[in-house]
Each structure stands twice: as C-alpha cells, then as structure tokens.
Amino acid sequence: MTVAAITPRRWKRPPLIRRTWLRWTLGLGAAVYLWLAFGTIEVNWTRVSAGIPRGVQFFAAFFPPDFASRWGDIVEGIQESIWMTVVATIVGIAISIPVAIGAARNIASVPIYYFCRAILAISRSFQEVILAIFFVKLFGFGPFAGVVTLVLATIGFYGKLLAEDIEDMVPAQAEAVRATGANWLQWINFGIQPQVMPRMIGLGLYRFDINFRESAVVGIVGGGGIGATLNTAFDRYEFDSAAAILLVIIGIVMLVEYSSGYLRRWMQ
Amino acid sequence: MLRIHALTKRYRTGDLALKGISFDVPDGQVMALIGPSGAGKSTAIRCINRLVEPTAGTISLNDTDIAGLGGGDLRRARRRMGMIFQEYALVERLTVMENVLSGRLGYVSFWRSWLRRFPQADIDEAFRLLDRVGLVHMADKRADELSGGQRQRVGVCRALIQNPELLLVDEPTASLDPKTSRQIMRLLKELCTERKLSAIINIHDVMLAQMFAERIVGLRLGEIVYDGPASGLSADVLTQIYGEEDWSATIRKPDEDGEGKEETTNIVRHETHQPHRDRMAGLT
Fold it and tell me: Could you tell me the pTM of the whole model?
C-alpha cells in the first residue's frame, strides 16, 4: 500500500477568484467603500422625530378612501387608461413584429439586423417617464402623448424579447419549410410563427399588464389617463380620493395579472 | 434525371466539404449515400436543393440548371424536390394536416396559405397520402403529439405532396428504432416504385442501405470512393469508405432476402384491412 492511499487526501472547492491577493483586495475594498458610503448619509435625528407624527398624519389622510366624491373622474380616468393601454399594446406589437424579425440575427441580413437593433436600443434607452415628458412637450398634454410613449416602450420590450425567441427557434423546422419552395412570407408564417406563437401571446399579455401600470405613471407627467386623475387628487390634497384611485389601480392590475396568468396556462 | 458534375463546397471556415463530386441519378433509381460523419453527405444533399450554396459545379434536374437559379426560379425548382429530414423537422406546433399541406407552399399564394385555404385538390391529396401511411385519423393532431415513426411518415407525406421528381432524404432513420427504421425505409422504397421517383438517401446504417437501395455511393472526406450496386459492397469497400474495421457482421448475406419480401406483403395487407390496424401499433 502506498502512503497516498492511507493518509486521506484533502479537497477544498477552488475559490471563485484564484489569486489570493486579488481576492483579499477586492473584499477589503468593497467593505471600505460600503463603510465610507454609509458615512456620507447624514441623518438629522431631531428632524426624524418631528417628521414621524407628520408622516402618520399624512398616511391617516388616506383613510378612509373616498370613492364617492370623485367617482365620475375616477371612472373617466380608468376608461381613458384602459383604452390607452389597449391601443398602445396593439399598435406597439404590430410595429414590433417586423422590427423583431429584422433584429433576429439568424434570419436577417447584416445591415437590416443592425438597423433594427438600433431601433430597439433607442426605444429601450429611456425610461417611460422620460419619454412621456418629452412627448408631452412635443404633442401637448393629454392621452395622445401617453399612447405614443407606451407604443415606443412596447416596441423596445416586445421587439427585443421576440427577436431573442426567434433566434432560439429550431432551425430544422424552418429549413424544412424553405425546402418546399415556400416564399419568404410563407416561410415566416409556417416555419417560424408557430414556433414563437406561445411566447408572442405570453409577452403580449405581460406587456398589456405593464402598459396599464405605466399609463398611471405617464399620466402624472401629463400623459392622460388615471395618472392625470391621481395627480389632480394629490394637487388638491384630496388624499382620500387618491387612496381610492390607488386601490382601483391595484384592483385592476391584480385582475389583469390573474387573467393573463390564466390565459397563458390555457395557451400551453 | 439528376446530373451532378464537379460539385464543390467550401464552407466559410475554409473546410472543403465536397471535393468536386460527380454522379447521375436516373429516373426511378433509389440511391443510398453512405459514409462516415463529416464525409459531406448532408452537404451534398443540401447543395442539390440549395439549402446550402455550392461553391462550384453544376446540378441539373431534368435539364434545369439548379446551381444558377435565384429567387422565384429557385423556389419553383425546390418544389420539384421533396426533402425528408433527420429528426423529421416537422413544425411541431402545427397540425399534421398543416404540416402535410406545407408541402404545397411552393404552389399556392401567400394569402391562401396564410388563411389555410388550400385548393380542394391539395386537401384531397393530403388525405389520400395520410391514408396511405395510415395516419388519416391523426390529421388534426398537433405534430408534437406523434411518435417518431408517425412523425417521419408525416414528413414523407409532406415531401410527396409536392409531387416531386426527386426525393432528397437525409438520415431518415437516425432517430428511429430498428423496426421502425425498416418500416420507414420500406415505405420510401415502395413509394418510389409506385411513383417512379428517384431518391438520394443519406444513411448511416449500411445494412439498411443494402436492403433498400439498388445503388450505393460511398463518400469519404468529400470524395466518392465507391459507386456501384448494393451487392458490390465488400469488406474492402467498407474499409475504403469508413476505415479499418471488422466488417463481417455488417455485410448483408443473400439468405436474408426472403425475410424482407415477407414483411413487405404484411404491410400491404394490414394497410388494406382495417382489423389489422393493431399491427400498426408497432409504428407508434
């Protein structure tokens, strides 16, 4: 028997960073940075203690939520938000389908690919609120600016994810359709669309959900919809009405969430 | 008649997959293309319908020069060549019927195909073919609900509904069990005889190639090293194609012929008689 067989051989999982000095430098550096960062936060405890009762008062103003006095405005705002969501989702998806086809590396030629990727990158580079501020300045207050914002945001989201799904398709299925002598549109329709359809529907429902929530946000900066109603309620210090609006938004988001989840399961 | 002359394919990576191969396939001939992995079998078959662009050489199908075609002409040429794939390559989320009818895409307009309003003649033919392969009851099932053997039979229908002059068959049995493999090969052979179709079949299994093809072309590293009758495959020839190995168990002995004949008659019988449908269970 050899010595190696008798003495147990030790084993330790190799560390993520192999060089010892680098591992320790990075770890210590992070700790020091964190400590310094905490040091820059100035907390004025007298202001905190004075602010707590005011905060309580502020939250108390939300209760009980008042659905009655602004009910007409709430219904109007919700209706506007819903049609903004429907229009923005449908128009956005309609535009993003060709963009996604162009942005899928496995089926688009190089110049088209870069062009479509650029469209997606631009529409994804700004957050909805920033786009909404820009479009409100461009088109004026109202739901049109909100719809344009949501359409652009939808293109960036839906186009990118759909393009990725097209890139993940099974090439053999598309190749088989091409081998039959199908033209380009038939090839897309028979060879690719069936493969990405579940994802398209799932993403569409998900985006509908997001667009409804975002419609409340873009409204606050002047893009119309329930957000505008909410903003007005805050401006008038009608926190009980604002609470009612928030509850309605939560209710509708939950409704959309559950129904889209149900629809997606049913699709599988 | 398919004529291939000096077909060469160099991939962008620099690999020379085909080194100027030439062969003719007369009408009605079933030819097996054998060779080790990477010999260029798949490339050769895909060059014929231009799923892969050949680098040089000519391909002519009944006097149409396929290598020089583009756009609509290429699509019209493709519909004259039915292709059957390894792993079936059915569009899994489409129904069996849609998969079969997709073989007609080269003949119908986009709008008709988009609305799934195929001409009645195409639908009749699709049902006839599905009936021929014993799958008419599956027409509205989604393709991914089928077993391997069933899927490959749908793949055969999709190729045949094109009304092709030539079948290009790429490893039809690669993912099937031995029994189903034989059944699929026999079906292909029978259909080629019925329709006087010529076929090029890429196949790994030397025994199956010998059983069902009258002619064998052996490819090695992009060159043809054997072209002759199936009976001409000897241990020497196989060594030339695949390299040194003990081939004594691979080469088919003449006394196995009878077994093949008998099974053929069984297939015909149980396809015409409904009570024998349970025998099709072997195919499921």
Answer: 0.79
